[in-house]
Amino acid sequence: MSFEQYLLLKQIHEQRNITLSELADDTRTTRSAAARKLRALLLDGYVEQEAKMDDRRVKYLRLTPKGENVENDIHQVFLQSAKTWNQIPSDLSDDEINDFLTRYQDNLAIWDRNRPKFHRPVVRARHQATSED
After folding, report:
1. Helix (H, G, I), strand (E, B) or coil at 48
2. Taking the CA atoms of the chain, what radius of gyration do you get in angstroms?
3. Which parts of the chain sit beneath pLDDT 50?
4. For residue 120, what pLDDT is reported?
5. In 15-60, which residue ranges form alpha helices assigned H by DSSP?
6. Could you read off the pLDDT of 74-91 as tens digits, one per residue?
7. Phi, psi at residue 103, to the nearest 5°?
8. 23: buried, middle or exposed (CB in 10 Å: 19+, 13-18, 0-12)?
9. Residue 29 main-chain phi, psi, to 5 deg
10. What CATH number is given for 3-65 in this structure?
11. What's the predicted TM-score (pTM) here?
């Protein structure tokens, strides 16, 4: 999940019954850009759409239980990270801060290379169907 997708997830979590247009406005992005990022969240089962009762053209966005869990997990990691940042001594020199940030970035890159990758089953199934033709 990209950071931009997480921001959409967070906005949907915080603002119940939000529409795509409202989501785009709130995240200061275009409707088409928000729709592209939202599509992945829909395919991955993090978000669902529900039509408005009196106007079926209007679709409300809601987190699925899976989306609620992921949003909560990411939020908790963020809070833990914020606590860690508050523990950094304020009397560090510029070189010490740069060294710390470089090591932090290196550790993130190592973690990203080693973490399990998630593959969307819908996309993979579609790819397999086209390669069999």
Report:
1. strand
2. 19
3. none
4. 57
5. 20-26, 31-43
6. 888 888 877 777 676 677
7. -65, -40
8. buried
9. -135, 170
10. 1.10.10.10
11. 0.58
